[in-house]
Amino acid sequence: MNQEPIIILRDIIKNQLSLTDQDVWLFNQDFKIPQTSGLFVVLEKVNSITFANNNRFVENDAEDGINEVQTINNQDEIAIELFSKDRTAQTRQDEVRMALNSFFARQQYEIFQFRVAKINNPFINISAAEGTGMLNRFRLTVTVLSWTERIAEVVFYDSNFTADIKTDPVLQ
What we know:
172 residues, 7-stranded mixed beta sheet
Protein backbone atom coordinates (compact mmCIF):
# COMPACT_ATOMS: atom_id res chain seq x y z
CA MET A 1 0.00 0.00 0.00
CA ASN A 2 1.48 3.35 -1.02
CA GLN A 3 -0.89 5.71 0.75
CA GLU A 4 -1.98 6.05 4.34
CA PRO A 5 -5.52 4.79 4.98
CA ILE A 6 -6.52 8.15 6.47
CA ILE A 7 -5.67 9.89 3.16
CA ILE A 8 -7.73 7.38 1.18
CA LEU A 9 -10.68 7.77 3.56
CA ARG A 10 -10.43 11.55 3.17
CA ASP A 11 -10.59 11.17 -0.61
CA ILE A 12 -13.58 8.81 -0.38
CA ILE A 13 -15.51 11.21 1.84
CA LYS A 14 -14.66 14.19 -0.38
CA ASN A 15 -15.76 12.29 -3.48
CA GLN A 16 -18.98 10.81 -2.13
CA LEU A 17 -20.19 13.85 -0.16
CA SER A 18 -19.16 16.36 -2.87
CA LEU A 19 -16.84 18.24 -0.53
CA THR A 20 -13.65 20.19 -1.29
CA ASP A 21 -10.17 20.34 0.27
CA GLN A 22 -11.39 23.33 2.28
CA ASP A 23 -14.17 21.17 3.77
CA VAL A 24 -12.17 18.06 4.76
CA TRP A 25 -9.02 18.16 6.93
CA LEU A 26 -6.64 15.90 8.72
CA PHE A 27 -6.38 16.41 12.47
CA ASN A 28 -3.78 18.86 13.76
CA GLN A 29 -3.21 20.56 10.41
CA ASP A 30 -3.60 24.12 11.74
CA PHE A 31 -7.08 24.84 10.42
CA LYS A 32 -9.52 27.39 11.76
CA ILE A 33 -13.20 26.60 12.24
CA PRO A 34 -15.00 28.36 9.39
CA GLN A 35 -17.62 30.98 10.14
CA THR A 36 -19.82 29.74 7.30
CA SER A 37 -22.60 27.16 7.44
CA GLY A 38 -22.27 23.77 5.79
CA LEU A 39 -20.56 20.49 6.56
CA PHE A 40 -16.91 20.20 7.57
CA VAL A 41 -15.02 16.96 8.27
CA VAL A 42 -11.86 16.22 10.27
CA LEU A 43 -10.15 12.81 10.18
CA GLU A 44 -7.84 11.70 12.97
CA LYS A 45 -5.76 8.55 13.43
CA VAL A 46 -6.62 7.63 17.01
CA ASN A 47 -4.37 4.59 17.43
CA SER A 48 -2.69 1.76 15.58
CA ILE A 49 -2.06 -1.85 16.55
CA THR A 50 0.48 -3.97 14.67
CA PHE A 51 -0.57 -7.59 14.48
CA ALA A 52 2.06 -8.90 12.05
CA ASN A 53 5.59 -7.76 11.21
CA ASN A 54 7.56 -10.05 8.88
CA ASN A 55 10.86 -10.16 7.00
CA ARG A 56 11.75 -12.54 4.19
CA PHE A 57 14.54 -12.70 1.67
CA VAL A 58 14.16 -13.18 -2.09
CA GLU A 59 16.60 -13.25 -4.96
CA ASN A 60 16.73 -10.17 -7.13
CA ASP A 61 17.77 -9.75 -10.76
CA ALA A 62 21.34 -8.73 -9.94
CA GLU A 63 24.02 -11.40 -9.88
CA ASP A 64 23.88 -13.10 -6.48
CA GLY A 65 21.64 -10.30 -5.24
CA ILE A 66 19.20 -10.63 -2.37
CA ASN A 67 16.30 -8.36 -1.41
CA GLU A 68 14.79 -8.09 2.03
CA VAL A 69 11.00 -7.87 1.84
CA GLN A 70 9.46 -6.37 4.97
CA THR A 71 5.71 -6.39 5.52
CA ILE A 72 3.61 -5.05 8.36
CA ASN A 73 -0.11 -5.47 9.04
CA ASN A 74 -1.90 -2.85 11.12
CA GLN A 75 -5.30 -2.28 12.62
CA ASP A 76 -5.88 1.48 12.78
CA GLU A 77 -8.71 3.35 14.43
CA ILE A 78 -9.64 6.47 12.52
CA ALA A 79 -12.08 9.03 13.89
CA ILE A 80 -14.29 10.87 11.42
CA GLU A 81 -15.64 14.04 12.97
CA LEU A 82 -18.42 16.02 11.32
CA PHE A 83 -19.15 19.57 12.41
CA SER A 84 -21.29 22.48 11.31
CA LYS A 85 -22.77 25.70 12.65
CA ASP A 86 -26.19 24.55 11.43
CA ARG A 87 -27.84 21.09 11.54
CA THR A 88 -25.92 19.76 8.52
CA ALA A 89 -23.54 17.63 10.64
CA GLN A 90 -26.53 15.86 12.13
CA THR A 91 -28.52 15.40 8.94
CA ARG A 92 -25.63 14.09 6.79
CA GLN A 93 -24.30 11.38 9.14
CA ASP A 94 -25.80 8.56 7.10
CA GLU A 95 -24.05 9.82 3.98
CA VAL A 96 -20.68 9.15 5.63
CA ARG A 97 -21.65 5.55 6.40
CA MET A 98 -22.94 5.11 2.85
CA ALA A 99 -19.75 6.66 1.44
CA LEU A 100 -17.60 4.11 3.28
CA ASN A 101 -19.63 1.28 1.77
CA SER A 102 -20.03 2.75 -1.74
CA PHE A 103 -18.81 1.21 -4.97
CA PHE A 104 -16.18 3.97 -5.25
CA ALA A 105 -14.94 3.16 -1.73
CA ARG A 106 -14.74 -0.55 -2.50
CA GLN A 107 -12.68 0.24 -5.60
CA GLN A 108 -10.28 2.30 -3.46
CA TYR A 109 -10.04 -0.49 -0.89
CA GLU A 110 -9.07 -2.92 -3.63
CA ILE A 111 -6.62 -0.57 -5.35
CA PHE A 112 -4.80 0.25 -2.11
CA GLN A 113 -5.32 -3.20 -0.54
CA PHE A 114 -6.92 -2.30 2.74
CA ARG A 115 -10.32 -2.70 4.34
CA VAL A 116 -12.68 -0.78 6.59
CA ALA A 117 -14.29 -3.12 9.10
CA LYS A 118 -18.07 -3.28 9.28
CA ILE A 119 -19.33 -0.07 10.78
CA ASN A 120 -21.11 -0.85 14.00
CA ASN A 121 -19.96 2.13 16.04
CA PRO A 122 -22.41 4.97 16.68
CA PHE A 123 -21.95 8.60 15.82
CA ILE A 124 -21.27 10.20 19.20
CA ASN A 125 -22.63 13.68 19.83
CA ILE A 126 -19.70 15.81 21.04
CA SER A 127 -21.37 19.18 20.40
CA ALA A 128 -20.24 22.10 22.51
CA ALA A 129 -20.63 25.83 22.80
CA GLU A 130 -18.19 27.76 20.62
CA GLY A 131 -18.14 31.39 21.57
CA THR A 132 -21.65 32.77 21.18
CA GLY A 133 -23.02 29.85 19.17
CA MET A 134 -23.35 26.11 19.28
CA LEU A 135 -21.08 23.98 17.11
CA ASN A 136 -22.76 20.70 16.14
CA ARG A 137 -20.14 17.93 16.26
CA PHE A 138 -20.53 14.19 15.73
CA ARG A 139 -17.76 11.59 15.82
CA LEU A 140 -17.63 8.12 14.23
CA THR A 141 -14.66 5.81 14.82
CA VAL A 142 -13.92 3.18 12.16
CA THR A 143 -11.43 0.32 12.16
CA VAL A 144 -9.13 -0.04 9.17
CA LEU A 145 -7.03 -3.11 8.36
CA SER A 146 -4.00 -2.31 6.23
CA TRP A 147 -0.59 -3.60 5.23
CA THR A 148 2.61 -1.97 4.06
CA GLU A 149 5.50 -3.53 2.19
CA ARG A 150 9.07 -2.32 1.83
CA ILE A 151 11.75 -3.90 -0.35
CA ALA A 152 15.43 -3.16 0.23
CA GLU A 153 18.54 -4.64 -1.30
CA VAL A 154 20.70 -6.56 1.15
CA VAL A 155 24.32 -5.47 0.87
CA PHE A 156 26.88 -8.19 1.54
CA TYR A 157 30.64 -7.94 1.68
CA ASP A 158 32.54 -8.22 -1.58
CA SER A 159 32.53 -11.79 -2.90
CA ASN A 160 36.12 -11.31 -4.11
CA PHE A 161 37.29 -10.85 -0.54
CA THR A 162 40.46 -12.80 0.27
CA ALA A 163 41.92 -13.64 3.63
CA ASP A 164 45.32 -14.91 4.67
CA ILE A 165 45.61 -17.28 7.60
CA LYS A 166 48.97 -17.14 9.30
CA THR A 167 49.86 -20.36 11.09
CA ASP A 168 53.52 -19.68 11.83
CA PRO A 169 53.84 -19.31 15.65
CA VAL A 170 56.70 -16.84 15.22
CA LEU A 171 54.35 -14.37 13.53
CA GLN A 172 51.89 -14.50 16.39
